[in-house]
Amino acid sequence: MLKLSTNRVFPLTESTEPETCLHRITDNPNYVSALRSNEYFLVRSKSDAIPSDFAGYLFFEKPSGIVPKNSFLLEPDLAYLSSGDIVRIVPKRNSLRTLYRRHSPHNYLLMTERCNNFCLMCSQPPKDREDSFLAEDVLRMIPLMAPETKAIGITGGEPTLLGQKLIQIIQAFKSYLPSTAVHVLSNGRTFQDRTYATAVVRISHPDLMIGIPVYSDISSIHDYVVQADGAFDDTIRGIINLKSVGVRVEIRVVLHKLTYKRLPELAQFIRRNLTFCDHVALMGLEITGFTKFNLDKLWVDPKDYQNQLREAVEILDCAKIPVSIYNHQLCLLDPSLTAFSRKSISDWKNEYMPECEGCARKSDCGGFFSSAKHRYSAHIRPFCN
Fold it and tell me: For residue 154, what are the domain limits?
């Protein structure tokens, strides 16, 4: 598990930066002089030369001699940082957060912590506070990202609560990173306003998808899971509006005790009413955020819902609706389902358990969320050669 955030960044000199600073990193000592004032230089060893005129410096070893302005000492856990990465530093709090990693396929950008749902298993519990700086940071970051970035995820909270700011951000991705796929995680409710759905499609982004959760074919069950009356109706209207104007939509279903029993019925509902959707993701539970507090209400061993999962996949696959299984271990899946399994857990929080040692299929398996240490299946077994 990578440490993306820390409060152990120690200023080596008095900072002339604003209260919060956002910079791209380089370790190229020959970086173009005219552009150095916008970059932070990464120094890995005491013996490395320290070029001048960069906005700041990040050290892994305390330097000897004269230390340049805006210099910070990093802990070893941040050794994964490399050229092209983007970080946010708050000097007064000794904090650093890695916002973007150039060489990672798992970059998700938090847009807001506000949300109009209150899901029982929310991994990012909502906070009702002004946090517009998050979206502003994203707008500053987009021009700094590498053009070869394959995909970016937009998440929250609920990103659509940003209103026109989200439209502006998607437009910026199209302008600066036209070859980068953009995946927006949303509860879909704001898209019940067809005008807003139309504003998205007018951007004409070449590779945009909105991922929207639907937890049951019965509205009261969905509304209970997301803790919001009327959410089911809003969400279905939102999906229909998006597809009617030509936006690609993925339906996401988190599998737990409250959703797995009617999973085949939900698959039938999708087949009959939402067959135009572009992808369905059937997802394992991440034990973090609100899930930890509702674990007894939500936890079910994945081994115990294989029949429902298999039936749902068969229904969707027969209807030619692309379907994938996320966040599951291969040894728990019915053999007929392994072809639908994807390695979906972000690299910075993907781990394996001691039971996985020596498994012949470990490299193909999705593994675990790091938070799975709180509870995971009793049926984990390694595959033998």
Answer: 108-374
Q: For tokens 């230390």, what's the residue?
A: 67
Q: What is the pLDDT of residue 19?
A: 84
CB 154 within 8 A of CB 111: yes
Is 285:291 a contact under the CB 8 Å cutoff? Answer: yes
Are 351 and 318 within one domain?
Answer: yes
Closest to 257 (Cα-Cα) out of 301, 287, 222, 290: 301
Question: In the structure, what pLDDT confidence band is assigned to residue 66 with cuts at 50, 70 and 90?
Answer: confident
Total structural domains within the chain: 2
Residues 69 and 141 in one domain: no
What CA dihedral angle connects 173, 178, 183 and 186, to 10 degrees? Answer: 40
Residue 12 lies in a domain: yes
Check whether residue 230 and residue 318 sit in a common domain: yes
DSSP letters, 295-334, are HHHH---GGGGHHHHHHHHHHHHHTT--EEEES--GGGS-
Q: Report if residue 56 sits inside a domain.
A: yes
Same domain, 165 and 73: no
Q: What is the pLDDT of residue 15?
A: 84
38 and 114 within one domain? no
DSSP state of 186: -
Q: Tell me the pLDDT tens digit for each residue of 183-240.
A: 999 999 999 999 999 999 999 999 999 999 999 999 999 999 999 999 999 999 999 9
CATH code where residue 187 lies: 3.20.20.70
CA distance 135 to 130: 11
